[in-house]
Design goal:
The protein is α/β, with parallel strands linked by helices and about 350 residues long. The protein is built from 13 helices and 8 strands. Bound molecules: zinc ion (ZN).
């Protein structure tokens, strides 16, 4: 065993992170920092809402082009965007929208060797800050995770836009953020590696802890603000937790049972209509059962009920629970090399099935 002075630890971050009401209005001056020729991919779901505003914001830079994106993050969508960036002699790629738009922009920028500005318009997961794109096959199933050489150069979060998106997205982001501390803590205890393949620095666990405390304290109030389409103080805190703290915490702290069980749940077709963070919330509850943390389980379950997150399998579409289905989930969650084995104890398929049975 090397002594602690010999262990290399690591953390990773986006280049810069800006958040607040009206932050999108800074897009022009931010794009100008990257030589001022912007190729902008805008999510079709919000294109009509933001495209005139982004055009105004970008009017001061040398050149920009805006492209509507309504598809999946596939190899062909990434190639198309690389082609558009080259055609327009872009010096920076900008992605504005939800996860698939942002993942496409991140991947295309990395492959084209260009910087990327990420503008999330929902706070439904911790993906915006990460150096990862989830690539889909043309028929819509997940092909692979693409690990990128660096994190986005700038993440620009306009909380007014996020407050105007449906509250369900913010709740899902809270579900994803709930996992961060429990998983990072498991990795810290077991010595499992983070997304850099290194043990985490103490910073990662401090950030992950703050992520949990923030959503527990402000989650319900943030959802009430979002219902009224107000970017109030609670929403500001929760957006920071869902996007920045959770992003830093998972990449630099590591992931474990909650996300492994999420991956298992995606094996069941009936869960496909539910958001990533909604399935992760079930993974968090099952992970607490596996860890024997009964009091924490009760606390988190009450919190999930207050923040409109699922607490039972039926809440994510699994109403007809059979042993075969639970075994399918458990087999996927526990496959060799899977992140569930980052927990500080051996986890078996039977234990996962037993934990899920307590969520029927
Ligand atoms: Zn997640």
């Amino acid at each position: 065993m090397p002594n602690s002075a010999q262990i290399i630890r690591g953390a990773r971050f986006p280049g810069r992170y800006l958040q607040g009401k009206g932050a999108l209005d800074r897009l022009g001056e931010e794009a100008a920092r990257f030589s001022g020729r912007a190729c902008v991919l805008v999510d079709a779901a919000i294109f009509d809402m933001v495209s005139e505003r982004t055009a105004r914001c970008l009017a001061s830079i040398e050149h920009f082009s805006q492209h509507r994106f309504g598809g999946e993050c596939t190899e062909s969508a990434i190639s198309d965007l690389i082609g558009l960036a080259a055609h327009n002699a872009a010096t920076v790629v900008v992605g504005i929208g939800g996860g698939k738009t942002l993942d496409t922009a991140k991947a295309a920028a990395a492959k084209a060797g260009l910087p990327v500005i990420i503008v999330p318009t929902i706070a439904a997961s911790d993906a915006p800050c990460s150096a990862l794109s989830v690539i889909y096959k043309d028929e819509g199933t997940v092909a692979h995770d693409l690990f990128l050489p660096r994190n986005p150069d700038l993440v620009l979060v306009d909380t007014e836009i996020i407050a105007n998106a449906p509250s369900r997205f913010l709740a899902a982001g809270i579900g994803d953020a709930l996992a961060t501390w429990y998983e990072a803590n498991s990795c810290q205890t077991s010595g499992a590696k983070n997304c850099l393949g290194l043990p985490g620095l103490p910073l990662a666990y401090a950030v992950a802890r703050q992520c949990l405390e923030t959503v527990l304290e402000h989650g319900a109030a943030a959802l009430a603000e979002c219902d009224k389409r107000v970017a109030g103080p609670a929403l500001e805190r929760v957006v920071e937790a869902n996007i920045l703290l959770s992003g830093l915490g998972f990449e630099s702290g590591g992931v474990a049972a909650a996300h492994a069980i999420h991956h298992g749940l995606t094996e069941l077709d009936e869960t496909h209509a539910f958001l990533h963070g909604e399935k992760v919330a079930i993974g968090v509850l099952a992970g607490l059962i596996l860890n024997g943390q009964d009091a924490e389980f009760d606390r988190v379950r009450r919190f999930c009920q207050e923040t409109r997150l699922p607490t039972r399998l039926a809440d994510i579409g699994i109403s007809d629970v059979t042993d075969a289905k639970l075994q399918l989930v458990a087999r996927r969650a526990c496959r060799p090399g899977e992140i569930i084995h980052n927990e500080p104890f051996a986890v078996s398929e039977d234990q996962v099935v037993a934990a899920l049975q307590r969520l029927i």
